[in-house]
Amino acid sequence: MRLIPTRAWAATLLFAAFAALPLIAAALDDAYLVVIATRILAYAIAALALDLILGYGGMVSFGHAAYLGIGAYSVAILSRAGITDLSLHILGAIAGAAIFAVITGAISLRTKGIYFIMITLAFAQMAYFFFVSLSAYGGDDGVTLSTRSTLFGQPVLEDDTALYYTAFAILLGLYLTAVAVTRSRFGRVLTGARENPVRMQAIGFSPFRYQLTAFVISGCMTSIAGVMLANQASFVSPAYMDWHRSGELVVMVVFGGIGNLLGAVAGATIALLLEEWLAVLTEHWPLLFGLILVLVVLYSRDGLTGFFRRRL
């Protein structure tokens, strides 16, 4: 019973730190901190979404970056069509991600284990090469966005701080939504399907329907992260949905602790901060990053958040 207040306090501290970061950046006169933090928030949304199916549904998706790309290209395609409002970009991203997730999820969920991993990877690579072939949007080189999304017709998000707080509000809202989902009857059935799908089916639940619904919800959440990444970089390319990106999302979840929504947010934060810090130290930073990941996996099965929790 002690874990609930501990996790609540940890969530409060983490989100309070996110809320205060622009003030800290202003005090240090370092605007780059806000830019990096916005990127972290976007990836935290994606890691949160992946952990919803990985940690609670037992679905190891190695193609979740496809939804990042769908969200990012929604901004580029709709903006070129004259639709610039952020809410419409998000709705477009959710619609595209939902269609892709329903089709690919319905097929992928008929497999298990390594086969599920490989088929999600295959679908993501299909999406990747589809967008590579879109010469109208730069093909493999991508396309630069002329402006960021607007809010109520106003270019509010051209200001980095405004974009940051928008991403922060979205992350906070999605985190609270994910917590509510996992604690609901739906979440308990999803977890039960992960542990023993045969028993869940025997007592009257359809694991496939619950898993597919979770898969679609996760994909839609990840597409929102893609919308924020496109606005943060003012650039969109197929690289957003490359298989390396999917691997990075899995690493973020492992860093924070699988099956721990707050851990997914913390894992994305720690992984990206480590990437920035190690890149300053050496050009061979991936080697050091890999060593740290190995140590985390060996000595803390529930990630860095579990490691620190046991020592508090």
Describe the structure.
The protein is mainly alpha-helical. The chain has one domain (15-241). 75% of the residues lie in helices and 1% in strands. The chain is built from 13 helices and two strands, in the order αααααβααααβαααα. It has helices spanning 3-28, 32-54, 65-80, 86-108, 113-132, 160-183, 185-195, 197-202, 207-233, 243-256, 261-281, 285-299, 303-310, and strands at residues 143-144, 235-236. The chain has a two-stranded antiparallel ribbon. α2 crosses α11. It is globular, with a radius of gyration of 19 Å. The mean pLDDT is 90.
Give a topology summary.
Layout: H1 3-28, H2 32-54, H3 65-80, H4 86-108, H5 113-132, E1 143-144, H6 160-183, H7 185-195, H8 197-202, H9 207-233, E2 235-236, H10 243-256, H11 261-281, H12 285-299, H13 303-310
Antiparallel strand pairs: 1-2
Helix pairs in contact: 1-2, 1-6, 2-6, 2-9, 2-10, 2-11, 3-4, 3-5, 3-9, 4-9, 6-7, 6-9, 7-9, 10-11, 10-13, 11-12, 11-13
